[in-house]
């Protein structure tokens, strides 16, 4: 069988295909991270493989059937497990009475909120998510049989986060969401929460335009920055692709919190996303004033793009459902096909050179362990899918016709993965390194220095290897 690492390293054509998908800013990260390049090439092979495509669609249909028309406790319990791992990996800061009032953005199916109420008996929560009739058959919010049924402790609001923020922008007010009756001063314009979870993400929706995803992400981060009390914590779900706006958002977070860590939940190592665990909020009023300017301008621009653009003519960043099902985010769509003159909004007004100089090192420190986890998981799944297909070919009739999307991939697909791994420090093989169980977290302390941009990926082992309608819900 062909050796995938050798194929990735030796295929100049594949490298050029991947690089053409990136803009100049994103290529800076490709040049500074050998691991990032290996991941992108593997993802390209994986995402363009017709056998993977068949497996992906089969898994997706099973998930949709399981969730169609009814809430599914499986998802809620999955999210409870994720937040439990995040807490235990960070000094149990989300339990044992450490949380008093929390705001959960994109709270369905209710796992994070239910776990927080159970682990903090005196806590109160406020959850916001889309109404179920706006997202039929998706990850519905369910309170039955959980702590979420206690309305004296938990309030659920069915609404669209982007609509909420738009109203604040129209009114010229910061997006302060006061607690409900009995949980604090309903008329307060001051921050009321010691924890904000910004976890809303488009799920199981097919293709969505880039501006919808960006607008949703910026809306909830904007809400978080104006609803956290001093010393509070925030958990944010972000894409791990180094788009300029994501790098700028990370810069804002690291200047507003004492520590920012990245962690992959145990159920989504294959996906291009992670949680940012931000602790000890200390943004000044001067900083918040700048944030109003940054986010107001960007969100207004995104709203304008949304109003004048048809989704079919705007960038589609791979599969919108990638981060819930299979992670089939194809690099060729990263920069994509935007309308002429349409650009991603700039938050701070800094040049690309300034942004990368000030934030690039921190983002690399933050994302490289996440890229490594993703590489390992995709490799494992890729090998499993192809091994299964090889076994089935010896006992089954030819497969049914592949989808048109798969057909377009055939010319660039590589079917086979190796039965053994290369040896040596230049092998590019990270799959078999031991790693602790649960969430993999990498701390990046704001302001830290010392990354050698000229060095290769440092977590690689030198040991020899042996041969052997739009909707958003919580993302796992």
Question: Which structural traits does this protein have?
Answer:
eight-stranded mixed β-sheet, 476 residues, globular, two-stranded antiparallel sheet, 13% strand, alpha/beta, 41% helix
Strand content: 5-15%
Helix content: 40-55%
Q: How is the largest sheet built, in terms of strand order?
A: 3-2-1-4-6-8-7-9
Low-confidence stretches are 311-341, 404-473
For the biggest sheet, the summary is:
8 strands, mixed
Q: Mean pLDDT score, rounded?
A: 74
Structural class: alpha/beta
Alpha-carbon distance between the two ends: 34 Å
* Count of alpha/pi helices: 13
- Global morphology: globular
Radius of gyration over all CA atoms, rounded: 22 Å
- Total beta-strand segments: 10
Order of helices and strands: HHHHHHEHEEHEEHEHEEHHHEE
Task: Summarize the structure in words.
The chain has 476 residues and is of the alpha/beta class. 41% of the residues lie in helices and 13% in strands. The protein is built from 13 helices and ten strands. It has helices at residues 4-10, 12-20, 24-32, 34-47, 50-67, 73-88, 111-119, 161-171, 210-225, 244-256, 285-308, 352-393, 404-409; strands at 101-105, 124-129, 154-158, 193-198, 200-202, 228-239, 257-264, 273-281, 440-444, 472-474. An eight-stranded mixed sheet has the order 3-2-1-4-6-8-7-9, with helices on both faces. Strands 5-10 form a two-stranded antiparallel sheet. Strand 7 (257-264) and strand 8 (273-281) form a beta hairpin. Helix 3 packs across helix 4 and helix 4 packs across helix 12. The longest helix has 42 residues, at 352-393. The two termini are 34 Å apart.
């Amino acid at each position: 069988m062909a050796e995938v690492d050798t194929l990735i390293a030796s295929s100049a054509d594949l490298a050029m295909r991947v690089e053409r998908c990136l803009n100049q800013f994103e290529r800076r990260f490709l040049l500074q991270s050998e691991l990032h390049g290996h991941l992108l090439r593997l993802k390209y092979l994986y995402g363009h493989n017709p056998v993977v495509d068949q497996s992906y669609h089969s898994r997706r249909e099973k998930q949709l059937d399981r969730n169609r028309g009814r809430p599914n406790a499986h998802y809620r319990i999955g999210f409870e497990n994720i937040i439990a791992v995040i807490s235990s990996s960070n000094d149990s800061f989300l339990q044992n009475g450490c949380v008093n009032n929390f705001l959960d953005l994109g709270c369905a199916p209710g796992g994070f909120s239910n776990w927080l109420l159970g682990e903090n008996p005196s806590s109160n929560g406020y959850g916001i998510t889309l109404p179920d009739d706006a997202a039929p058959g998706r990850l519905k919010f369910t309170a039955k049989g959980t702590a979420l049924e206690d309305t004296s402790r938990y309030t659920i609001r069915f609404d669209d986060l982007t609509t909420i923020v738009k109203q604040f922008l129209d009114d010229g007010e910061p997006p302060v969401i006061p607690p409900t009756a009995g949980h604090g001063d309903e008329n307060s314009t001051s921050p009321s929460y010691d924890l904000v979870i910004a976890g809303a993400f488009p799920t199981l929706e097919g293709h969505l335009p880039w501006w919808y995803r960006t607008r949703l992400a910026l809306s909830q981060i904007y809400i978080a920055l104006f609803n956290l009390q001093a010393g509070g914590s925030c958990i944010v779900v972000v894409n791990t692709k180094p788009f300029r706006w994501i790098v700028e958002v990370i810069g804002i977070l690291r200047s507003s919190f004492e520590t920012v860590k990245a962690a992959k939940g145990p159920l989504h190592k294959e996906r291009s996303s992670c949680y940012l665990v931000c602790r000890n909020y200390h943004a000044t009023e001067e900083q918040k004033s700048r944030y109003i300017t940054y986010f107001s301008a960007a969100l207004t621009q995104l709203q304008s793009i949304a109003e004048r653009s048809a989704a079919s003519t705007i960038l589609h960043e791979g599969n919108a459902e990638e981060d819930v099902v299979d992670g089939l985010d194809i690099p060729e769509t990263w920069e994509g096909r935007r309308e002429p003159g349409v650009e991603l909004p700039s938050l701070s007004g800094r040049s690309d050179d300034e942004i990368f100089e000030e934030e690039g090192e921190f983002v690399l420190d933050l994302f490289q362990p996440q890229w490594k986890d993703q590489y390992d998981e995709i490799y494992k799944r890729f090998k499993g899918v192809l091994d299964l297909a090889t076994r089935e070919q010896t006992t089954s009739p030819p497969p049914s016709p592949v989808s048109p999307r798969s057909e377009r991939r055939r010319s660039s697909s590589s079917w086979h993965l190796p039965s053994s791994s290369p040896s040596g420090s230049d092998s590019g093989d990270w799959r078999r390194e031991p790693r602790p169980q649960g969430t993999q977290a990498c701390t990046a302390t704001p302001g830290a220095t010392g990354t050698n941009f000229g060095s290769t990926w440092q977590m690689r082992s030198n040991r020899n290897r042996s041969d052997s309608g739009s909707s958003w819900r919580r993302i796992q």
